[in-house]
Amino acid sequence: MSRSAVTLDESFLGFGYGKNACPGRFFGSHIMKVVLAYLVMNYDVEFGSEEPPMKTMWEYRIPRESTAIRIRRRVQACN
Q1: Distance between CA 21 and CA 58 in Å, rounded?
Q2: For residue 58, what is the DSSP state?
């Protein structure tokens, strides 16, 4: 995907389009990136099975609702 999440485009209406576009889309996009970075740095995330069954929703591939996910806080090493 080469476009930005905040770019207004008729093919992605997550933040609206035209005069109804969300004015907070830049802030929302920034917060999502910060939260994702925090999770990647501080937690180990594993799927419960080797290959989770995926489904396609619009143009995205996402795990099915029944997919088990294990989330564990990482143990910080002392330096």
Answers
A1: 20
A2: T
C-alpha–C-alpha distance, residues 48 and 69, integer Å: 5
Instruction: Please give the average pLDDT of every successive group of 10 residues along the chain, which has 79 residues.
Output: 65 77 87 95 84 74 80 84
Residue type present at position 78: C
Structural domain boundaries in the chain: 18-73
Cβ atoms 4, 15 nearer than 8 A: no
With b for 16 or more beta-carbon neighbours within 10 A and e for fewer, the 36-56 pattern comes to eeeeeeeeeeeeeeeeeeeee
For the whole model, what pTM was predicted? 0.61
